[in-house]
Amino acid sequence: MKQRKGSEVLQQFVFVGPAAVFFAVIVAVPFFLGLYYSFTSWNGIARHADWAGIRNYVHIFTKDPSFLNSFWFTVRFTVLGLILTNLLGFTLAYVLTRKLLTRNVMRTVFFMPHVIGGLLLGFIWQFIFVRGFASIGQATGWSFFNLPWLGNESTSFWSIVIVFVWQNAGYLMVIYISALNNVPKGLTEAARVDGAGRWQVLRHVLIPMVMPAVTVCLFLSISWSFKLFDLNLSLTKGGPFKATESVALNIYNEAYTLSRYGMGSAKAIIFFIVVALISVIQVWATKRKEVEV
Amino acid sequence: MRTKSLPGGYKLPLLIVEIILVLLGLVFLVPFYFLLVNSVKEYGSILTDSANWPAAFHWSNYKEAWKATDFPKAFLNSLIVTVVSNLLLSLICAMAAYKMVRRPNRFNKLLYLAFVAAMVIPFQAIMIPLVKVLSGLSLMDSTLGLIIAYLGFGAPITVFLFHGFVKSVPVDIEEAGKVDGSSAYGIFFRLVLPLMQPIIVTVIILNTLWIWNDYLMPYLILQNPSRATIPIATYAFFGQYTKQWDLALPALTLGIAPVVIFFLFMQKYIIEGVSAGSVKG
Q: Domain span at residue B132?
């Protein structure tokens, strides 16, 4: 019996141990260490970090407009990004669940941008916005393409939104397609028999039935857009004049451009709290709307 | 104004929808057209008209970009990091999730709760102290250190996905294994792990898209250019040759080629994996 118990403990170590240890070293310890650093004025090099109390936090909220600006940018970007990617993703999915000849090819085309990382996409789109749009503008004369793309605050903002939607709509589309395919055929047919039009079926049958997928897609798109970093770094670098600097990029600059690690840690903790709050509220709110069959 | 379409029938309204959809698909592909076409042009003609089909194909652009980014090296580095991280991450997380489901003792329940909570931690929230911890363990500027970082940071979501799946695996099979005298390890590796294959495929696909394209983690951990992954090598190269599009564009094309080719060959699994992963997420 004693030996049995010993092997049980050993099994626990072998099965759960590695994941627990890597998680502890890479996530848990740094997280709490970061919490500690956020109350210091550590510069990243000194062996000893001076205690600063809540000074970093007070500074961020009272004397650091760049951080608050980056928050405001991120919020605006998140709202637009999540609305547009979900609208486009759902529309594509809705159309692609009809009996189209090209639906498999089109599904591949719309999904493809997602497999490329944001960093490389940002560089590619830099070229498109600067040189490609100029050429299209010359050929067509459409003023949209002759705007100073990446040159001012609003074109830079919209450029990130455009690339973000282009990159991620296809991923959400795939999730919506599988949700729409899982809606029982009998349900839509019954609605049709009762005289419901295409629009009414969509509004009163399909959308309520795919609410679980909406939860997932909102969660994903908020998470991607709120943590925007790679694309931001390579497409605009936060410019012009920090007008398109996301929170993640602001934290990065604080730590690695200004070498204020204590301040950077405090910003990171605030960022974490906001991300956690948004996730919890959002999952809670959409779960309530889901329909049980 | 409702148009009645026969079931299975292909009618005019559907044709119009199809045409609009294909046009939108072409718009989606335009960036790739610009990238490919201009990657083989001379610098001068990129500037004069970037929309034109190339008058002459300068394949030498690719040769130079290939050499300047040391592409084979960067590709190999990305491949090693992605493959090794994926295999280890799937293995240790499958084992952990299995044990956590079958032995829900206090420690395992607490650990699972920690994993779920950690899923919302953004990487920027831990990156500053992470570098400190890794240098304390002498794991900085090493491929091993990078892989370990992926194992730790990828564990929460991976365990979460496996956990949801193992709950649906019937215990009966394991009971039968026990009667046959298999050890706990034998039962896991010979009976349970093969049953987990669908979720393992999903997890590997999701983690591959993440690790292959990740920039910030390798940027912070690796310093020696000989260890650079594709995003790191591209970023360094782009910083050096800003606006020198005749070199930057072929370098970018090379950079995206492996993952695009991988996607085109594996798209059935990738798209299925994404739908399957989202159900649990």
A: 72-280
**Residues in chain A where the model's pLDDT stays below 70:** 1-6, 289-293
| Interface mutation target, options A3, A9, A26, A265, chain B, most CBs of B under 10 Å | A26
Residue whose C-alpha is closest to residue A85's, from A177, A164, A158, A174:
A164
Question: What are the pLDDT digits (tens) for B180-238?
Answer: 878 888 889 988 999 999 999 999 999 999 999 999 999 999 999 899 999 999 998 88
Question: What structural domains and CATH numbers belong to chain A?
Answer: 64-289 (1.10.3720.10)
Question: B247 and chain A: CB distance < 8 Å anywhere?
Answer: no
Evaluate whether residue B36 is within a structural domain: no
pLDDT of residue A4: 61
- Mapping DSSP to helix (H, G, I), strand (E, B) and coil, where does residue B141 land? coil
Residue identified by tokens 């903002």 is A157
Q: What is the 3-state secondary structure (H, E, C) of A62-116?
A: HHCHHHHHHHHHHHHHHHHHHHHHHHHHHHHHHHHCCCCCCHHHHHHHHHHHHHC
Whether B27 is in a domain gets the answer no
Number of domains in chain B: 1
Give me the interface pTM, i.e. the ipTM.
0.89
